[in-house]
Specification:
This protein is of the alpha+beta class. It folds into 2 domains: 177 residues, Clavaminate synthase-like (Double-stranded beta-helix, 4-Layer Sandwich), CATH 3.60.130.10; 94 residues, no CATH class. The protein has a 7-stranded mixed sheet with strand order 1-2-3-14-6-16-4. The chain has a 4-stranded antiparallel sheet with strand order 5-15-7-13. Strands 9-8-12 form a 3-stranded antiparallel sheet. A hairpin with a 6-residue loop joins strand 10 and strand 11. Helix 2 packs across helix 3.
């Protein structure tokens, strides 16, 4: 087994993995350790690692708990995502500028990404960080009175802030990423959503993609969502990752929400290579991959 060190990033969010080297397929004990820490902490950070998209995909498979397929199958899956870039400099990259409210990629779909990964190919300080908030810890710490208000209730998720209520949109600045689309995808889930892999309960509402609570008036819905957001986005339930070259970051896209402040194309280079699952397992066509690219960024 590769000897690894695990360092907590915060008491509730994330862990840095120290000592993992790219040397082919990992042994079973190392895989179990990575999965356990990932399921417990929601985010894994590796620094100063030289990695290509195929190996980035391979580690994603491990964290999902899958038996990784043959090398050629992993390479094929990685090639389907070869246009997944988060960059203010790369042509045709997703969300090259603007601010992103807290969200989970694909929460508006019945097949959201479960694990996401970004690798810092080129970043120049000062770089806009990626911010995270834990939906799992938010539910664990939800006050009893607020928990009683949401028990059994459902919410509608949409693909971006352009579909959020006007009242919430007035409270945010004009630099939000807002893509033009020909359709309005949406999906309804419980507020107390069960994680499909870990079984943990999540406070499954996001500032950037949860439109409304089913069965409430618009004002009642926003009032209750504001209470939930105030609890979910408390400083002690957040962590900000300051990027540097060679950073490899994995996060549970359901248990962890992510956001960023305003990125500008004239600013410092911020080029991150993105990989996500369950693209292979959900039999998502290239057309749908491009659809995900159009409506998700980090």
């Amino acid at each position: 087994m590769t000897r690894l060190q695990v360092r907590d990033l915060t008491p509730v969010i994330g862990a840095e993995i120290i000592g993992l080297e790219r040397k082919g397929r990992l042994d079973d004990e190392t895989c179990r350790l990575l999965r356990r820490v990932f399921d417990e902490k929601g985010i894994l950070l590796l620094r100063d690692i030289d990695i290509d998209r195929t190996y980035q995909m391979y580690l994603t498979e491990i964290l999902m708990g899958h038996e990784p397929p043959a090398q050629e199958e992993i390479a094929k899956a990685a090639s389907l995502q070869d246009k997944f870039w988060i960059s203010n400099k790369e042509p045709d990259a997703a969300a090259p500028f603007g601010r992103l409210l807290f969200h989970c990629d694909g929460i508006w779909s019945k097949d959201p990404f479960e694990v996401l990964s970004l690798y810092a190919v080129e970043v120049t300080p000062p770089v806009i960080p990626t911010n995270f908030a834990s939906s799992v810890n938010a539910w664990k710490t939800l006050p009893d009175k607020l928990r009683a208000k949401v028990q059994g209730k459902q919410v509608v998720h949409v693909s971006g802030p352009e579909y959020l209520p006007a009242r919430r949109r007035r409270d945010v600045s004009d630099d939000l990423v807002q893509a033009a689309r020909d359709y309005v995808p949406s999906y309804t889930t419980p507020i107390a959503q069960r994680h499909p892999r870990t079984g943990q309960t999540m406070l499954f509402v996001t500032q950037g993609m949860t439109k409304e609570i089913v069965g409430l008036s618009p004002d009642e819905s926003e009032d209750l969502l504001e209470e939930l957001f105030a609890h979910l986005y408390r400083p002690e339930n957040q962590w900000a990752h300051d990027w540097r070259n060679g950073d490899l970051l994995y996060w549970d896209n359901l248990a962890m929400q992510h956001a960023r402040q305003n990125v500008v194309t004239s600013g410092p280079v911020r080029t991150l290579r993105k990989v996500g699952l369950p693209v292979m397992q959900a039999d998502i066509s290239m057309q749908k991959v491009q659809s995900y690219k159009a409506v998700n960024a980090t």
